[in-house]
From TrEMBL:
Keyword Transport carried by entry: yes
Domain Leucine-binding protein span(s) in chain numbering: 47-390
Keyword check for Membrane: no
Keywords in alphabetical order: Amino-acid transport, Signal, Transport
Domain of life: Bacteria
InterPro entries with a match to the protein in the record: BCAA_transport, Leu-bd, Peripla_BP_I
Protein name: ABC transporter substrate-binding protein
SUPFAM superfamilies: Periplasmic binding protein-like I
Family under the similarity heading: Belongs to the leucine-binding protein family.
Length: 434
C-alpha cells in the first residue's frame, strides 16, 4: 500500500491553487461558473438542502455526533465563503441508529417535503448500505464520509461516492504494525503467530477478510480468524481461545465498546498478547483510553488521521482541532470528525464546481477531481475511480503512548502517528502496557 506522499506539482506552472484556508489546500479544478452578484434588495437565493444521516442516538451516538460535527464545520466554512454556486447550504439531520432507521430516514430525505439534493453519511457500513441503496434508487448522490466496508462501493451504483479509505487500506495499514513488531523482535514477520478477532458484522467482516487475504499473499502465519456475535456482553470466551492458541498479535475489528470488553477479558484472564492492533472505531476514542487505563498503553490501530501527526503531510489537522474547540467547547473526541470534515470539503468543492445540484454534473465534477496527497488536513488527496472510491485516502498506523504528567495532574495516554514514516511523530513501542 502506498503511504502518504506529497506528489510533486511539476508541470503545473501557472496553475492556480485553491486555498483551503488553514486546513490545507487543494489544487484548483476546472473553474465553476461564478454566479453574478444579486442586485441590492433582491431576495436571497434559496438554500441547497443536504441530508446529514448519522447514528445520532443508540450505541453509536457519540461517533455519529462526532461525524456530524465534522460535516457541520465543513458546511459552516463553505457558507462563510459564499456557499455553493451562489447559494447557502442547509443541513437536514437524520438519525439512523440501525438499518431500519437508515432506510426510513433516507426515504424521508429523498421523498419528503425537504427533498435534499444529496445525502452525507454515515459512520457505519451497516447504515451506509441501506441508506445509499435508497439514494441510488432515487437518483440522489450519496456521499459517504467514513464507513469502511468494501461493499459500500462494490455494487455498481452510479451515485454513491466515498471520500474515506476502504477496508483493504485499513487492513494493509494494520499489517504495517506486524512488520514493525517483527523488526523489533529480530524475527521474520512470517514467524509471528497472528490472530484476527472480528465482530460478525458487515464492516468487520470486510476488514477481516482483507486482512486474511493479505496475510496469505505475504505468507504470514494466521492461526485463527475468530468471530463473535454482535453486541457481546463479554469476550471472555474469545480471550480464552486466543490464549489457548498462543496468539502473539491480535488484530481486532469490532464495534465501538468491544475493545473495552476485550481488554477487560484479558485482564481477568491475566493474559495479554505481545500486541493488539485495532481498526478505527473505539480504538481512536479518548474515552476508550481513559476507560481501560494503563493496560491500553502501546495499543496500535489502523485509524483515521490523528491530531498528533506530522503536519507536513496533513496541513491543518491542528487548526481543525482548534476550530473544533472554539465551536463546541471541547477537544475532538476521535479522528472521525477530522475525516468527515476533510471528506465533506472535497464533496462540497465538487458540488460548487458542478455549478448546480444536477446529479450528472455533480458526478462529472467528482470524476474530474485531481488533488495530490498531502494537501488536506487528513493528508488525503482525491481521485475517484468508476466505483466512486477515493483512491488517494490513506489510513495511519497509530499508537496510544504515555504523556508526561502535568503539574498537579496525572500522566495519561494520547494517540500518535507512528507510520508511515512521513506521518510519524514518535517511534513505535513494541509491547502492550505501561
Amino acid at each position: 500500500m502506498q503511504g502518504f506522499g506529497r506528489r510533486m506539482l511539476g508541470g503545473l506552472a501557472g496553475a492556480a491553487l485553491g486555498a483551503f484556508g488553514p486546513f490545507g489546500r487543494a489544487r484548483a479544478q476546472a473553474p465553476a461558473a461564478t454566479p453574478a452578484p444579486a442586485p441590492a434588495g433582491a431576495p436571497s437565493a434559496p438554500p441547497v438542502r443536504l441530508g446529514a444521516l448519522f447514528p445520532l442516538s443508540g450505541p453509536s451516538a457519540l461517533f455519529g455526533d462526532e461525524c456530524y460535527r465534522g460535516l457541520e464545520l465543513a458546511v459552516e466554512d463553505r457558507n462563510a465563503g459564499g456557499g455553493v454556486f451562489g447559494r447557502p447550504i442547509a443541513l437536514v439531520r437524520a438519525d439512523a441508529p440501525d438499518e431500519a432507521a437508515a432506510t426510513e430516514e433516507a426515504r424521508r430525505l429523498v421523498q419528503g417535503p425537504e427533498r435534499v439534493a444529496a445525502i452525507f453519511g454515515s459512520f457505519s457500513t451497516t447504515i451506509a448500505l441501506p441508506a445509499s441503496q435508497v439514494a441510488e434508487l432515487a437518483n440522489v448522490p450519496f456521499f459517504e464520509l467514513c464507513a469502511l466496508g468494501d461493499p459500500v462501493v462494490e455494487r455498481g451504483f452510479r451515485w454513491v461516492f466515498r471520500a474515506a479509505p476502504q477496508a483493504t487500506d485499513f487492513a494493509a495499514t494494520a499489517l504495517q504494525g506486524v512488520s514493525i513488531l517483527a523488526a523489533a523482535m529480530d524475527r521474520p514477520d512470517t514467524a509471528l503467530r497472528l490472530a484476527i478477532a472480528q465482530e460478525d458484522a458487515l464492516g468487520a467482516q470486510s476488514i477481516g477478510a482483507a486482512q486474511e487475504a493479505l496475510m496469505q499473499a505475504r505468507g504470514l502465519t494466521l492461526i485463527q480468524r475468530a468471530s463473535y456475535a454482535p453486541r457481546p456482553t463479554d469476550l471472555a470466551g474469545l480471550v480464552q481461545r486466543l490464549r489457548g492458541l498462543d496468539a502473539e498479535v491480535v488484530l481486532h475489528v469490532g464495534a465501538p465498546g468491544d475493545e473495552v470488553l476485550l481488554f477487560r477479558a484479558m485482564r481477568d484472564a491475566n493474559w495479554q498478547p505481545r500486541m493488539v492492533i485495532g481498526t478505527a472505531g473505539g480504538y481512536g476514542l479518548g474515552e476508550t483510553a481513559r476507560s481501560i487505563g494503563a493496560d491500553f498503553a502501546g495499543t496500535m490501530s489502523a485509524d483515521f488521521t490523528p491530531f498528533a501527526v506530522n503536519e507536513r503531510i496533513a496541513p491543518g489537522a491542528r487548526a481543525f482541532a482548534e476550530l473544533y474547540l472554539r465551536r463546541y467547547g471541547a477537544e475532538p473526541r476521535s479522528g472521525h470528525g477530522l475525516a468527515c470534515f476533510t471528506g465533506a470539503r472535497l464533496f462540497l468543492d465538487a458540488l460548487h464546481r458542478a455549478g448546480s445540484a444536477e446529479r450528472d454534473r455533480i458526478r462529472a465534477a467528482l470524476m474530474a477531481t485531481d488533488i495530490p496527497e498531502g494537501l488536506t488536513a487528513c493528508g488525503w488527496g482525491a481521485r475517484f475511480d468508476e466505483r466512486g472510491q477515493n483512491l488517494r485516502a490513506r489510513p495511519v498506523l497509530c499508537q496510544w503512548q504515555p504523556t508526561l504528567a502535568t503539574p498537579g495532574g496525572q500522566a495519561g495516554l494520547r494517540q500518535v502517528a507512528i507510520a508511515p514514516a512521513e506521518a510519524a511523530i514518535a517511534a513505535a513501542q513494541t509491547r502492550l502496557g505501561p
